[in-house]
Structure formats: C-alpha cells, structure tokens
Design the sequence.
C-alpha cells in the first residue's frame, strides 16, 4: 500500500497534468489577495469555494493516470482491490492539503488581512478547506473511478454537478417545496462557506449534514468502485 501511494504520487507529479489546476488556483489566490485590508472570514470562504472545482479537476486527473493493462497490473498487486482506490484518495487529499497550505500562508506573507488571525478563524479555515477538498474529491472520483457517467460524459457530468452545487440555494428557492429534497443530493458547498464565515456552531444543521454527506460519499465511492471492478 505504501509503495503504491509513493508510485501514484510520483506518477501524478511527473505527468505534469497537475500544473493547469494548480496554476489556476494559485493565480486565483494572487488575484483575490491583490487588495489590502480584506476581512479574514470572507477571504477564507472565497479561497475554499475556489478549491472545490479545482479538487474535482485534480481527482479526475489522478483517477485517469492508468489505463488498460497498467491498471490491471497495479490492481493485481493489491492485497485488496479497494486499496487501489484508497491510495488514489490519499494522493488526491494530500494535493488538497498542499493547496490549502498555500491558501493559508499566502495572505499572511502578503499581510493583506485587516485584522489579526485568531485561533477560531484558523480552525474554521481548516474545517472549510478540508470539507470542500473532500467534497471535490468525491465528485471527481465519482465520475472518473466508477461507472457513473461513463468515459464519454465524465467531465461534463462532473461540471454539471459542480455548477448545481454552487447554485444549490437558488435552485432550492425555485423548486416547489415537495421537490426541495433534491438539493440535499448535491454537495453542501453553501453550508461549508457559511460555517467559515459565521462559525461552525452558528450553523449546526449544515455542519452536521456536511459530515454525514462526506461520510456517506466515501461509502458510496467504495461500493461503486468495487462494483465496477466486479468484486463480490
């Protein structure tokens, strides 16, 4: 498992496919922090919000590194085939942590905040960026490592879900009351950004639902991945 993770991280790095999403995110950060005296909570919410689609992109890249016989060879070396999925998830998550670290340190180095960074704000930053990294990871892996969407519609399907998740509050307002439950199937992006701005305990229902959603998402990923690989 450890050797596979090292191999997977090396393949991802040397493929250079990580450069477009990473450069796009860092460019976004520099454009966001161009102005001085920005509020901490709002800045953290925006950087976490931007991290969500970037993580979808990175997840789909990592899950498409091997094709055909190379993938079959790697799967054959796994003690359990779900370890193949776990290794990819860990590499994607580490990439998200690296981008989160850049997002955290950059404004501090530039000195653009209008107030000192408190421990509570740092905790909300960690929660928000971790949660949206995991939600982006879920969507990317769902459309690239399972049979959902297929090869033909994986990118368009993931883009549709990202857009729908971002617009979920507006979609809920437009739907009849009997159909508003449909929005619950989308990643709770707005709930996470609200928690970053106002505090986790200010939105207990949204924060609880986010944890439930993330937990359920990984159970779904494992089931769909093993089903695709025909493991009983």
Sequence:
């Amino acid at each position: 498992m450890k050797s596979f993770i090292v191999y997977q991280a090396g393949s991802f790095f040397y493929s250079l496919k990580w450069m477009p999403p990473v450069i796009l995110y860092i460019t976004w950060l520099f454009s966001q922090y161009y102005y001085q005296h920005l509020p901490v909570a709002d800045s953290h919410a925006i950087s976490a919000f931007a991290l969500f689609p970037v993580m979808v992109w990175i997840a789909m890249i990592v899950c498409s590194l091997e094709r055909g016989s190379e993938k079959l060879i790697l799967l054959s070396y796994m003690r359990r085939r779900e370890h193949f999925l776990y290794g990819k998830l860990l590499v994607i998550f580490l990439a998200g942590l690296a981008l989160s670290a850049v997002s955290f340190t950059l404004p501090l180095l530039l000195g653009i905040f209008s107030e000192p960074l408190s421990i509570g704000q740092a905790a909300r930053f960690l929660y928000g960026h971790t949660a949206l990294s995991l939600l982006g990871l879920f969507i990317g892996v769902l459309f690239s490592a399972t049979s959902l969407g297929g090869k033909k519609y994986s990118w368009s399907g993931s883009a549709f879900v990202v857009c729908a998740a971002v617009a979920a509050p507006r979609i809920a307002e437009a739907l009849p009351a009997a159909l508003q439950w449909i929005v619950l199937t989308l990643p709770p992006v707005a709930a996470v950004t609200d928690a970053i701005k106002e505090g986790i305990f200010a939105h207990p229902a949204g924060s609880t639902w986010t944890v439930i959603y993330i937990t359920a998402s990984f159970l779904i990923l494992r089931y769909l991945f093993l089903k695709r690989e025909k493991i009983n």
